[in-house]
Amino acid sequence: MLSREGSYGFPSAGPSALKYSHGHSDSGSVGFQGGSVDSLARARPSVYSGTAGPPPGDHEEEEDDDYFDSESDDPDPDRFVNFSLLSHLAVRLRDKVPRGTHVKSSIPYPRAFTGKDIVSTIQNQIQRELLINHGVSTTDRRAALQVARSLQQQLFFYEVEWGQKLLQDGVEDVYMFLDDLEGNSEAHREREELPTAVITSLTRCYASSCSEDDPCYSFACPRRQTEDWLSTVDPGILLTLPESEVHRQTIIYKTITQEEQYVQDLDTVEALFIRPLLKASPPVMPAHKLDEFVEEVFGNILDLRECNRRLVEAMYVRQREQAPIIQRIGDVFLDAAREFRFAYPTYVGHLPLAEKRFKDEIESNADLRLFLEECSRQSKQQEARRLDLKHFLSRPSEHLQKYPIALEAIMKETTEGNPDAYYLAEAIEAIRNLQNVAQLRTFQTAMGKGPTGKWEWHDIVAKDVRESLSKAEAKRQSIIFELIKGEMAYVRDLENIGLIYVQALREGDPPVIPRERLNGFITDVFHNFAELHSHHRKLLDQLHDIQRDEHPRIKSITAPMFDAALNFRDAYMEYIPNYPIAAYRIDDEMANNIDFKTFVDQCIRHPDAHRLDMKNFINRPIPRLLRYELLLKGIMDETPANHEDREAIPQVLEIIKSLGKETEPGVQSAKQKVQLWCYNSNLQFKPNESVDMDLLNENRSLIHAGKLLRQPDTGFEWNGWTELFVLLFDNYLVMTKTKEKDGVTKYNVNRRPIPLDLLTLANFTDPPTQRSTSILRLGLGGGNRHVEGGPSPGSGAPDTATDSRLVYPCTIHYNGRLGGLHTVYTESQQARAEWKQKLDEAIGLRKVVQESNKVFELEPLSTDTFLVPSISSAAVPSWNHENSLTGKVTCSVPFTTADGRALVAIGCAEGVWIGFRHDSRSMRRVLHLKMVTQCAMLEDFGMFLVLADKALFAYHIEALVPSSPQSAHTSQTPQRVNGTRDVHFFSVGNQGGRTLVIYMKKKGLDSVFRVLEPVVEKINERSKAPASFTSRFGIRPARSEWFRLYREFFLPSESFDLVFLKAKIAILCTKGFEIMDLTDFKSVTIPLRDDGYERLAKRGESCRPMGMFRVENEFLLCYDEFGIYVNKHGAPSRNTGTIEWEGTAERVAIHWPYILLFDSRFIEVRHVSTGLLAQIIPGNEIRCIWDGRGTCAPPSAGSENFQPMSLDPRIHCVMAAPEPVQHGTVGRPRSVAQHVFELTPTMPLYPPGAPGSPNNSTYFHQQTVSPPQSPNLLPMTSWR
């Protein structure tokens, strides 16, 4: 069945729809979608569908005489032809189509015809029918083409080669009828069947009571529709009316009829599409998406229906009041125009976006396509026409354009003096203005997309309006329009940042950027773009409101611009300085992430990206501010002298200009930060010599950089002087050689970076030296001559051998293990002075920062008790009543007595002193022992251990420091733990619930270890009177009663220390770290020395192991020169190699989460998890005398990571006083005080969980402004 959708502006015939039943499939159905017949004078399109098969036989039109002789003598041969029946058209086509001989594939076909012949024949038939019987004329051939294709699908004719493609309106394909006889005879045989279908657009009313003279009751009857106003008016009245009034009333009547049909169409939209779409089960799309789709596609179409319903009601009222002659209609439309003012511009302006959304959804959503097809099938049953949604969406826009035409036609027939002429003129003007506003809305809604988004000022302003403006005003309006149009494009680009990039990155699967870095990357790159979008969206809405209210001549836009400039200032102050960081993050990510590079390339090809990359989008806000300046200046230049903008625009310009100036410092700071990140990425270290200088720290800064010269180290140099590029950061001085590769400058580190904490300026005043450029230099310094007051005339070698330029020496001293004096040269006195100034500034700044963020500070325990002779004094006797020299301080241990006193025991060459902490005057010698080297306190057992002159003694602590009068009588006689004077060291710890004391003695080249366990009962026994002569002198028998032997073993290697682990012990020996289980004495040596670790093994043999500390699932092995992380099997666990200490560690201690390395010149504090340098504490002859061990509960070497930092001191050290003091009377020997300190943790400005101070992890976590992970220098896995 061929169905119709009111194609030509008139309704379908009949009170009911035709229905056919047939046995064939729907293969004959042919249709073209709504709106495709655009040239039908804004008529609604048709949808045809034909089916083959015999009719049911109940149609009076199809009888045996349906075949007509084209050569009949009947004066009206078309009298019995019904062109709405496909069978009748088929017969006419067979009779009328011109036949001839056509050649295809070199074969001639007689009695054939082309596709163009078929379409032309059908077009001639239906065009005449439309014109005569329906009053519609059209030259569009697409309806004829659809009829022809329906006949083709029902095999009324065939393509001579039996091709399967659809018939085209052209001469490429050749066709013949199936029933044509062979030969040239014009005769034809009868067909048993003809194609059957109804062409609803050509139907006449089929009601039995309907005739040309007496139309049927149906409003949709074509005959009724063709009735005019004349047939409803008394002929007597008609005779009294002039012809113009008859025409006027006819047009008014037709206008009312069209308005009724329009309202019906809007009702159909709701009934046939919106309601079923919302109630569809199953739904055609998710609920949240469905509501959005309905809102975007249908917009406020139901509001339009309400407006037009009120218009129809007003016209009905006017008909009832003034029938049959309507005197006034203009006022009705004028009121309607006022009501249309908001509804129609909103709908028409949104229509392009609605059509695009509808098209996109149709292409991607098969369920929606099926749903709309079902709606069309239902529409045929209801209205005998196939309805197309796309047509209905454009119906309001088309209908709005018809109003001025209809009203002008009424006005043309209105007689002079009729008051309705005024109202009609006003209504026409109002509706035309409405059209202009709708056009403006269309431009605004397009937001720069599509043809309507490309309109310029002259495209939406009528020519007569443009001509009425002065040249200056026209230019002013054009610039204002350009500013608004540019703002639309800018806002759309900000929206596209979120759609094209941010949303796509977040929803990427697999992720383009790893999830753990994605949020930080988005924040670093796009920053607060959403805040900018919010401000400019608000500004654009205000500009659009002004444009809609004042178009086509806008008075001023300065007020919203001034308000916006004040409001978006803070957002730009934050966004603009971030741009260098954002650009760097993009470049770095593209260089290191191929997926991200592919993603950016794909985004460039996005239709809305305009072939611009990500950096262009994020840079968009910066030139926009400059554009505002240019446009506002242009508007002011064309503004009349007495206009308010003359005063207002300069104020806006001042705000925007100041914004640019105020963001400059932030931009420079960000550029410097990016420069630091670039240096961090491009610094190249030699293998296994990398140093993480913490360049990713937020507080890091580059103080100075420039070229310096270095004199060759030897006398035989082919390259002469070396040019260095020296970087002075706020924490390190780095000497590099530059090398450019692939457009990127790499900085090859020439010497180990020097921490500013260990840098001093030695000499910056030496006279200049003449620089030699000889290729061959003989002898050290042969190329240099000191010049006093400049070079003398005539001196030196010829120009080919000597450069007349002078170089100025700068000598610095590096106080580290690999340090010494370094001399570099500048090319001018001014450069040397500048370097000195910058170095002084950097060193001073470093001291201030470190003082504010130090991890530990020195709290004195004793400052004047322990004295040693100065180097210049002669040898003096030991401590006695005549002098107070105590000898070298060697050990200490804090403890608390039973009565709660906090004391400290300090051992030195002349014995052991005990006193209150932080009170030097309370120190008293309690043991007169020589050569005390180690002490420990077992508080749970009330026992004090002392190693003196290689003999290990145990004392009751109550005997040394009585806590009550009764304990004062405790015997001071010690227990001698070992038999002979051969103990080198001992260690105290807990393991398996036991308190153990292990001491080491040498036997040849072996190390023999004895493991002892305290016997509580024996320790607490009341001491008996001395039983032997030796006991009177403080010596007990060789066998100790307070300890029992628990284990004994030996190690065939020299040992230095022993550390208690969680379940095992670690022996520090020449082989490395021997990990042993005391239960079975099984052991393993780490680090591994297998194949692949030869370099590490060789390095370990030349260094002495100093300590071992557990860090999560790793161990940090500390040697005197370096440290290395290993796994539980002893293999290096990090690919960054070793951590090189700045000094030579003579002792290593831990105060979680820091390790402290004691060089004689300074204490090096590093983070145990990363190895990053946190603090350097300078001093003189520094030694560690307590590392936290030597108590019943020493700090575990297996501490878990991220435990809170204890604020209780756990480390003691001693250092020589800065200046020797004169003690006693004149002539007495000079002595030097030894200051004993405890290292007290501070409350730093940044939490101590970070790998340094200031804390960069805290900063990056909170601010999420972080540089990318550099390939070689990662903040958590690099060492210095």
TrEMBL record:
- Gene Ontology molecular function: guanyl-nucleotide exchange factor activity
Q: Look up the signal peptide feature and give its range.
A: none
Every copy of the DH domain together lies at 247-441, 475-666
Question: Which InterPro entries does the record associate with it?
Answer: CNH_dom (IPR001180), DBL_dom_sf (IPR035899), DH_dom (IPR000219), PH-like_dom_sf (IPR011993), PH_5 (IPR041675), PH_domain (IPR001849), Rho-type_GEFs (IPR052233)
User: What range(s) does the PH domain occupy?
Assistant: 701-844
Chain ranges of the CNH domain: 886-1192
Q: Where do Polar residues bias regions lie?
A: 1253-1267
Q: Where is the composition biased (Acidic residues)?
A: 59-73
Q: Where is this region: Disordered?
A: 1-73, 782-801, 1244-1280
Note the superkingdom of the native organism. Answer: Eukaryota
List the protein's name. CNH domain-containing protein
Q: Which species?
A: Suillus plorans
